[in-house]
Amino acid sequence: MEGFPVLSAIILSPLIAVLILLFVREERVDLIRGIAVVSTSITLILSLYLLFAYDTTKGGFQFEERIEWVRSLGITYHLGVDGISIAMVVLTAFVIFTGVFVSWVGITHRIKEHYIFLLLLVAGVFGVFTSLDLLFFYLFYELAVIPMYPLIGIWGSANRQYATMKLTLYLSFGAVFALLGILSIYFTAGQITGKYTFDLLEINKVIFPSRLYQIVVFLPLLFGFGVLTPVAPFHSWSPIGHAAAPSAVSMLHAGVLMKLGAYGIIRIAMWLLPEGAQFWMPVVAILCLINIFYGGLVAMTRKDMKFMIGYSSSSHMGYVLLGMASLNYVSMNGAVLLMFAHGIMTALAFALIGFVYDQAHTRMTYDFSGLAHRMPFIAVAFAVMGFASAGLPGLANFVSELLIFVGSFKVYPLQAVVAVFGIIVTATYMLRAIRNVFFCELMEEWKHLKDATTFVERLPYVVLIAVLLIVGFYPSILVDVINTGVVPLIDKINGVTQVAGG
Amino acid sequence: MITLYHYLVLSCILFAIGVAGVLLRRNILIVLMSLELVFNSVNISLAAFSHFLQSMAGKVFVVFTITVAAAEVAVGLAILVVIFRQKKTVYVEDLSEMRH
Amino acid sequence: MSIWLLLLIPLIATTTITLITRRHKDLSSYISIGAVVLCFIISIKPILYFLRNPHAEPLEQSFTWLNIPGLYVEIGTLLDPLSVLMLFIVTFVGSLIHIYSRGYMHGDPGYSRFFACLSLFIFAMLGIVLANNFIQMFIFWELVGLASYLLIGYYFEKPSAADAAKKAFLVNRVGDFGFILGIFVIFYATGTFNFLAIEKQIEAGNVGDWTLLLAALLIFCGVVGKSAQFPLHVWLPDAMEGPTPVSALIHAATMVAAGVYLLARTAFLYHAAPPEAAMVVAYIGGFTALLAATIALAQSDIKRVIAYSTLASLGYMVMAMGVGGVSAGMLYLTTHAFFKALLFLAAGSVIHALHTNDIWKMGGLYRKMKITGSTFGIGALAMIGVFPFSGFFAKDEILVATLASGNYVLFIGGIITAFLIAIFMSKLVFVTFFGEERYEGHPHESPPVMTVPLIILAFFAAVSGFVALPGLEPNFSTYIDGHVEGGEGGHFVAILSTLVVLAGILVAWLIYQRGFVRAEVIANHCHPLYRVLENRFYIDDFYDRVIVERIYNGIGRAFNFTEIHIIIGFFVNGSAFITREIGKALRLLTTGRLQEYALLMVGGVVILLFFFIFG
Predict the structure, then answer these.
(1) Ranges assigned E (strand) in C539-614
(2) Number of neighbours of residue C572 by Cβ within 10 angstroms
(3) Is the CB of residue C601 less than 8 Å away from at least one CB of chain B?
(4) Helices (H), C385-516
(5) Is residue B64 part of a domain?
(6) C489 and C415 in contact (C-beta within 8 Å)?
(7) CB count, 10 Å around CB of A60?
(8) What is the CATH number of the domain that holds B27?
(9) Range of the domain at B86
(10) Does B36 reside within a domain?
(11) Does residue B76 sit within a domain?
């Protein structure tokens, strides 16, 4: 595979699939699905190849590709991955792979357009995670956000117009601020070195002399990407967005899209502006409490399962923020691993809820009872998801939460205590949902429900659960790779303190 | 002796007539004709400047403008014909779909 | 290597049953039983090794699980007399209960699921026993919680079982909240999770008093949850919703004892910490024992009575740990595993025959079920602590240790508890197996697959106390502690406790067997008190109605209100509303009249011109 442009292939694979799909007739449903499956399988295989071929002893950015784009403005098509981005690429590959299968079952009209938008979105996400050029980063970022609008607007459920409008407005609003920050970094770095470039690795070498500058510019970046993360109190687009979206879109939305925000904060804001990170992260550590505690308790009161998982997502992203804010190796590893684990777990959650909703046409926990009698497979998968969410050992989320708690306990003891308490809250609503939906006597009206039995129906759940278990039992498989990306980042941020403080 | 000012005054008068026609006439056909007047007033001033400043650029622009204006009239009239077929009217106050 | 098999075999068994053999019920049960028996056989070797060399160095093996700068987590095994003892209890009692379950669960639709969960439990429990560090302990601690959840909720179609499972898991989670924080405190004080390394650091005096106190109390929270001590004891009686073998194995013999095991494992911490930590442990244990024994008096569900007796036993054990009697507590744990498993299994045999849990619908069963009745009797005598049954030695050691530590309040509490236990255990025997026949149907003795385990357990319940005989070398306390514990006042305590329990049995005999005083009369006479006991001091109600419903859900509802009406309703939709209103106002400009637009445009041009010329 030496010299083969793996990263470009990962981005192009869905885009080429989109091109082919444009020429396929709407009625040839199986061909359309087949194309989507093939293209996402290719991305999955390639991203797993990335994970295993990445040289952890060398570290740094690998699989780099660089093509001059606009020389005069310093724009290059520059791709490359480090430990952090590999975890995210693998996550995305798993979520879209399973998402295609979930859509196979769940989407019944305008199938072709659905897959086109889905694949466009995911190409954008891959682009964000692999770009080492700020302008391409932004470009891919928008490419990832925009297809959400038609995806929710056309295939969504109740209240979809409101949801999709709110989501798009929120995210575009945030993106504008992020762009402001990116441009400011571009111009300032250009002024300092005399050579204007969007290349992240080049800008990374620039030392911004003014602490004030870093602090000021960090804010729009934090806000812009924070809205997508979502940092409380700018989270309200997300639960309703989850709720209104069709299953595969919810999976991508909660599983991957929210991680774009956190990734943007890590990759751009914290990495390029270390002193800004030093200044603002304590604020983030306070805001994340709202996410964890408030989000968790709101999730507890919700009876609509998608809303419940939606608020739970913003609660769990609070843990990610706490891990980021603590600024040490352990917690940062935990934050990245939780982004991965939560992505897989929440994708599983939305796939399952979608499966039940497509048959029952309701998602209210109080409408159900005893579904485990009719759908034992789905019940088991849901329980695995619930326990993963509640941080049960043996599943990936436990490891990441453990790392975050250990890492943050010394820096922010209060936050760590609240975060650990948040686990109880999570367990409460997950177990309540399991009890109300799957346990007790089966109601007469749900006698017609069918379990997932066919290969296509079961595959996504099996794959996602397997990933949770593998990472849960053997976390080093991911952590060793993530760590190579985390160490230089944290060193850079903390190295600055020693210079400034010493 | 006809000086530059004579041309410019002519251009101004034509421009004013054209604007007045655009703003005041109800028949959309006349509005379009008035628009042509505005164009030509500009053409006159361009040609005059070009002549007196001994520069070819102005004349090139005049030819350019006339070409574009012709194309524009062609499109405009085509739209007008379609609108007339649908609405059976050429009065601008009856064409207020844009308000919604 | 063979030690790792102890973890691997049950894990393979549970995955095999779940993934492959779940449709073949018999095969599944054989896999599960085979796994636990194999574990027992494997663990014989280390047991013999430590019996021969009780003072041998602990054997430790480990591999790296997670290694990043600033954090090193290993998964390992630690073999010492303590863990080997637990290994024996878990695999031996576990084997018997697995075998018993084949008979008890016969014909149940979820047969394979039951055995898969049992194997999962054995896997997790052995993980706790073998753990050589706190993180591994916590990991398997949570996994036994999962197994317990799945087994309590085994009859998930029953709302009460579904609720009990949820309650058990969540209450344990509350305890684990403190446990994990305690682990962090220790980790930041010593830089390691490994038990032996922590012990060295603490002995070297590297850890401050306050840190030790905090860590000890927080870690005790985990014990309070898992071993069902007051105030988190409420889940254990409800856990009786699970199948009876589960109650025997998990909620009596092994899992709930894990908390006590944790206290023994971390005894160095409580030794080094300020004495307040151990005092808290001892008083919580003593109070739990007394509370549970009192409540048990007014219960009439056979399994619930035994569950409350388990609570009382756990209270004893925790109290023993608190007063420094590690070997006394472990002795009680060992004997308790036998006699409590026996009591539950015998009760299960009765339930299997009668399909009811209510003791007032039994009576006179001894004539029909001789083996069950006599083994139950042995279990009860052991539980009460009558010489020479095993419970006598264990209880005696605990009381001696309590007296020796100078906690006279606790000692008196322990004696009262022993009296109460004697009353309600004998009541159970009299009402269930003797007296008039109040049952319906035709009960008959259970099949040998159930009675043989009963007989084996009965044997151990009767004689296992003799391992603590003074003069035996090595006897139990030298095996665990390496030295003999204080024998001050040993005879006094033995005689006093024997007198007390005999008095208790006599009281029960007078009331329930001879009808000297009618039970209903007492109940009517002390009506308010009886109601309070029947309702378990209203602790469950307080938790449900005040803590959970009012406070926990209340905060949730308040937050939800904020979310809907303030954040979304006011800020988000408010800004959308303002934007829309501005848009409406500006829309007045767009009249749709072509010439007005043109006029505006010309006006704009004029203004611009004005600026360019005069500006």
Answers:
(1) none
(2) 19
(3) no
(4) 390-405, 408-433, 448-463, 476-481, 490-508
(5) yes
(6) no
(7) 14
(8) 1.10.287.3510
(9) 4-92
(10) yes
(11) yes
Q: Are strands C59-68 and A75-81 parallel, antiparallel or unpaired?
A: unpaired
- The encoded tokens of residue C454 equal 């009963």
Cα C509 to chain centroid distance, Å, stands at 32
Best C68, C148, C170, C232 residue to mutate vs chain A (most A CBs within 10 Å) = C68
How far is A243 from A305, CA to CA, in rounded Å? 8
- Whether A256 and A282 have beta carbons less than 8 Å apart is answered as no
Q: How high does pLDDT run on average in chain A?
A: 90
Mutate to test the interface with A, among C563, C567, C577 (most CBs of A within 10 A): C563
Domains: count for chain B: 1
ipTM (interface predicted TM): 0.92
> B27 near B91, Cβ under 8 Å?
yes
User: What is the secondary structure of B3-61 as a DSSP string?
Assistant: -HHHHHHHHHHHHHHHHHHHHH--BHHHHHHHHHHHHHHHHHHHHHHHHHHT-SHHHHH
State residue A499's pLDDT score: 44
Is residue A16 within 8 angstroms of chain C, CB to CB? no
Tokens 């004998």, residue located: C426
**Which among C593, C599, C602 has the least Cβ separation from residue B96?**
C593
CB distance C70–A423 less than 8 Å?
A: no
Query: How far apart are the C-alpha atoms of C351 and C356, rounded to whole Å?
Result: 6
**What's the pLDDT band for A498 if we cut at 50, 70, 90?**
very low
Measured distance between the N- and C-terminal CA atoms of chain B, rounded to whole angstroms: 55
- Portion 447-466 of C in contact with B at CB < 8 A: none
Give the closest residue to A326 by CA, choosing from A415, A427, A264: A415
Report for A40-44, C323-327, C343-347: range of highest mean pLDDT: A40-44
Q: By CB neighbour count within 10 A (0-12 exposed, 13-18 middle, 19+ buried), where does C593 fall? A: middle
pLDDT in tens, C543-593: 888 888 888 888 888 888 888 888 888 888 888 899 899 988 888 877 777
The residue among C377, C487, C451 whose CA lies nearest residue C103 is: C451
pLDDT (0 to 100) of residue C483: 56
A181 close to A217: Cβ distance less than 8 angstroms? yes
Contact C281, C316 (CB under 8 A): no
What are the tokens at C196?
């032996």
Q: Per the domain annotation, does B99 fall within a domain?
A: no
At which residue do the structure tokens 């539950």 appear? C344
Mean pLDDT of C448-463: 89
- Rounded to 10 degrees, the C-alpha dihedral C179/C183/C188/C191 comes to 180
